[in-house]
Structures are given as structure tokens and as C-alpha cells.
Amino acid sequence: MHQIITSPVFYEADSLKMVAHLARPQGQGPWPAVLIGHDGVGLDDYQRGRADDLAAHGYVALAMDFHGGQNFFGRPDAMLARTMPLLADEGRMRAIGRVALNVLLATPDVDASRLLALGYGAGSRIVLELAQTGAPFKAVAVVHPALPKPDADDWRDLNSTILLCTGSEDPLVTPGQLLAFGHTLQEAGLDWRVTIYGGAQHAFWARPTNSDGLLAEGSTHVQATVPGVGYHPKHTERAWRAVLDLFGEVLNDRC
Length: 255
What we know:
It contains 6 helices and 8 strands. By secondary structure, it is of the alpha/beta class. The chain has a single domain (4-250), classed as 3-Layer(aba) Sandwich (Rossmann fold), CATH 3.40.50.1820. Strands 1-2-4-3-5-6-7-8 form an 8-stranded mixed beta sheet, with helices on both faces. The radius of gyration is 17 Å and the shape is globular.
């Protein structure tokens, strides 16, 4: 494991000042790079922690921001008001993702030929839009993703391996939806896989917190959220291992 360096990264996108999180190994590269998209609530400590863990495994990781530094946890109406219009606008999603990707690729010691992507919820949709429009990701891992329209013609020119993950009890991103999208990828000739986590709901990696930000006990969220969200610690770890295994596999460097 590597010692890491972390820093906030500020940039302009979607008429907002974004505050991303960059993590990288200490020492000279070149290092493979991972672009991370947060879910609709906003960039939080979980995605920052995933970037840090990737850096410890030898990746440069940028956890992008697409809410201008805001986090909507506990404010589901405000989250939906920001996120739903964004998900309805492919051009905005692609523009936001492209700026973040350019920031990552401009980071010193990044090996652009070993580029990967990881997304959660709405952030999954952004990285999938980037892949669909030509970003050369070797692999894309998405967890409870918002999915683009299922048109195989949009995916025929890709060479990415795609991992789709959701919980069996997720009412927003069901196993059936992921399998249907996977068959679209199969029709396009892509390497894909679906992992279903039994008993898990939407955003099963998100730990409950009290209104003061401190962690709460149990799996049920104390603060208001959209229906169907619940924490599942075992599957959180299993999903993370699946991401690391995928990245190691496509780069021929098992973590």
C-alpha cells in the first residue's frame, strides 16, 4: 500500500465553483487514474474515502463535484430539485463530466492510457455519458446507477469493461433494469457483468448520521431521505472489493 497525498481541487463547471477531492500516491508515477462521480446527495466523506483508498492502491483518483460544493443529505427535496433536471439534460452531464475528466488528466504523473471510472447514483450516469461519448475508460464500475437510454448503437465503439451493481431491494434501480441495460451492452459487443447484493436497498453504502453529522447506530437513516435507502455494511465492503477486483483485472494488476 502507498502513502497518499490529498487536496481539494477547485474548478468551474455548470456555472458553479466545484470543489472536488484529489488523492494520489506519494512518489513518482505514472499512475493509473480514476474519475469518481458522487451520487445525487453530493460529494461526501464516503466518495472522498474511496478516492483515498484508490490512491493507497496506486491510483490517482479525482472525486468530482457536480453540486458546487453543496451536500443535500437530509434535504431530499432540494437534492431532487438540483439532480433531476441535470439527469434530464445529456449535454449538461457531459459538459460537467468532461471538465472534471480534464482536471484529472491534467494532474501530474497520470497515465492517460490507464483510465478508469467509478460512479454512484447520478454520478454513475455522468461517467456512463462520458464513456458513451468517447472517454477511453478501460473499465467503468457503477453502483445503483442512473442509466442512459438502452440503445446498443450508442455503445458499439467502446472497449470498456462495465460493472453494474445494485441491491435486490432497491426500488429506484432494480436488478431487472440493470439486466436489461446489460443486454444492451451485450448487443453492442461489450464485456459486462451485473452484481446483485441480496437484501440491500438504494445507496447501501451510505451510513446513517445524526443531524450533527455524527454517525448513528443501525442501518435506518435518521435524517430525511428518498424512500428505499438503507445502509448495509457487509455489501458495502463487498461492492468495494468488486470495484478493486475489476480495476486490477483490466490493468492486469490485481490489488
